[in-house]
Amino acid sequence: MRDHSNALEAMLLYMNDTWSGLEKSVEVKDALRSGIATKAELLAAGYNSNPVRLRVYLKNGGAEWRTLIPTETQIYLAIYSSVDKNVDLGTDNSMANNWALLTRPLAFTEPKNSLSLYSWIGQSLLSVSAPSLFP
To answer: Is 60 exceeded by the pLDDT of residue 21?
Structure first.
């Protein structure tokens, strides 16, 4: 996909469609209501593994649903959580600002703390087994 704006729009539409399907699920509603998962976490897990299977993991696993998802998805969620906790993505959450940032021409700029972040993620993934990524 040479048109990055088009690729981003397609990805956002797919993510929106994925969430629209997930949020209709009783299991997803229960997980959100009980606090065993966040919307971002459920969307990421549904996207990375399988939105239909996610409902089964939630139903069968309850608060331990993360132990039932594929190892790759456990790692994906660990990385997602690490970045979310350790990288300041800014405080302006307005949709207009986010859309402007997301659709601008892509240019790689190395964040000041990226080397330490890469190192931390790598060490974290090497130091724990996948089932223990979520204590």
So the answer is: yes
pLDDT, position 121: 53
Of 102 and 78, which is predicted with more confidence?
A: 78
Angle between helices 51-61 and 4-22 (to 10 degrees): 40
Task: Give the 3-state DSSP-derived string for 102-119, with helices as H, strands as E and coil as C.
Answer: HHCCCCCCCCCCHHHHHH
Q: Return the half-sphere exposure (C-beta side, CA atoms, 13 A cut-off) of residue 27.
A: 18
Residue-range domain boundaries for the chain? 4-132
In sequence order, which residues have a C-beta less than 8 Å from that of residue 130 and are 6 or more positions away?
Answer: 71, 74, 75
Q: Which residue has the tokens 């990385």?
A: 79
Residue 16 and residue 118 in contact, taking contact as beta carbons nearer than 8 Å: no
Q: What is the pLDDT of residue 86?
A: 75
Q: Give the phi and the psi of residue 55 in degrees, each rounded to 5.
A: -60, -40
Q: 34 and 64 in contact (C-beta within 8 Å)? A: no
How far is Cα 81 from Cα 70, in angstroms, rounded to an integer? 17
**Rounded Cα–Cα distance for residues 117 and 84 (Å):** 11
